[in-house]
């Protein structure tokens, strides 16, 4: 596997370097500014700007994404893939921060769930390495693909009779299925025995979505002038779970405590402007706040 990864890195670099003069490069991005009156709390203004660069040379594609707001450019994703006959090799080259280790645990290897710690609700505590290489093979049986990544996970995916299936066996067994039935898009996911689902359909011009979390969304209106009403269910309290830096703990990398949140609703009215921007006004019943957001994509 290591030799295959090394060969992929050398060959891909050579392809990109030798065809840079005729290669195709595409830029895209988005930017927005939001003003939130925060109900009875102090108002706030936030900004966001992102850019994606896609370079293609033959059968090799490099995609890099960046966050441009702030004092410096920040990488958010770098992926490379190449196809050689029936074999596709994909590399995740950026190790994103998926944990929230605070200074209190910076030198720890194991965290006890009884220890007080600040962090985003439900976020994992210890960081893990997210880079990796996946090798996929198109199997001449239906529309099946068999893939193997450098963590030892085996992924079988494909579409049969209109049903799209994916089954991953490894650290966590995950099975997903998606199908369109009589105008209703159905998606089901089972991860380590826990099942979630969502439904999406259109009734009399209204786009409706329903999820197993009891979240309901309805969007209606004409193109460029829409209103979206969402009902977000309550969040139950979940205690923090212990974890370790290696992820070998019973609870993996550990998670922070999730405090309970009452159910609430949002109403968002969005309109495309002649300037090319989109203006959205969102009312949130959880804190009686109104947010105005201007955004543009290119």
Question: How would you describe this structure to a colleague?
Answer:
Helices cover 6% and strands 52% of the residues. The relative contact order is 0.13. It is built from one helix and 20 strands. It is mainly β and 298 residues long. The chain starts with a helix and ends with a strand. The protein is globular, with a radius of gyration of 23 Å. The protein has an 18-stranded antiparallel barrel.
Query: Can you summarize the main beta sheet?
Result: 18 strands, antiparallel, barrel
Assess the beta-strand content as a share of residues: over 45%
* Total E-strand runs: 20
Helix percent reads under 10%
Would you tell me the overall average pLDDT? 84
Distance between the termini: 39 Å
> What class, by secondary structure content?
mainly beta
Main attributes of the structure:
20 strands, disordered N terminus, globular, mainly beta, 298 residues, 1 helix
How do you describe this structure in short?
The chain is mainly beta and 298 residues long. It has one helix spanning 2-18, and strands at 24-36, 44-57, 60-67, 74-84, 87-92, 110-111, 132-139, 144-149, 154-160, 163-169, 174-181, 184-191, 194-203, 206-211, 216-222, 225-232, 243-244, 264-272, 278-284, 289-297.
């Amino acid at each position: 596997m290591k030799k295959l990864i090394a060969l992929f890195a050398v060959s891909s670099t050579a392809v990109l370097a030798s065809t840079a003069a005729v290669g195709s490069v595409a830029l895209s991005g988005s930017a927005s500014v939001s003003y939130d009156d925060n109900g009875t709390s102090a108002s706030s203004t936030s900004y966001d700007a992102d850019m994606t660069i896609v370079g293609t040379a033959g059968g090799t594609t490099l995609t890099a994404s960046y966050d441009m707001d702030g004092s410096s450019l920040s990488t958010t994703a770098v992926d490379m893939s190449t196809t050689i006959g029936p074999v596709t090799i994909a590399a995740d080259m950026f190790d994103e921060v998926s944990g929230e280790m605070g200074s209190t645990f910076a030198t720890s290897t194991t965290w006890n769930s009884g220890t007080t710690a600040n962090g985003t609700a439900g976020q994992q505590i210890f960081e893990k390495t997210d880079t990796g290489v996946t090798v996929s093979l198109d199997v001449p049986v239906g529309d099946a693909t068999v893939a193997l990544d450098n963590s030892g996970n085996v992924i079988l995916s494909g579409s049969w009779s209109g049903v799209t299936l994916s089954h991953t066996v490894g650290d966590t067994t995950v099975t997903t299925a998606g199908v369109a039935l009589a105008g209703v898009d159905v998606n089901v996911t089972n991860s380590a025995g826990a099942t979630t689902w969502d439904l999406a359909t259109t009734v009399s011009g209204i786009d409706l979505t329903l999820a197993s979390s009891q979240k309901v969304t309805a969007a209606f209106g004409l193109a460029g002038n829409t209103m979206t009403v969402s009902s977000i269910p309550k969040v139950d309290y979940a205690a923090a779970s212990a974890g370790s830096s290696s992820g070998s703990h019973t609870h993996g990398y550990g998670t922070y405590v999730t405090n309970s949140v009452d159910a609430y609703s949002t109403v968002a009215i969005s309109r495309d402007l002649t300037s090319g921007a989109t203006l959205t006004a969102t009312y949130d019943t959880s804190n009686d706040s109104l947010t105005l957001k201007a955004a543009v994509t290119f």
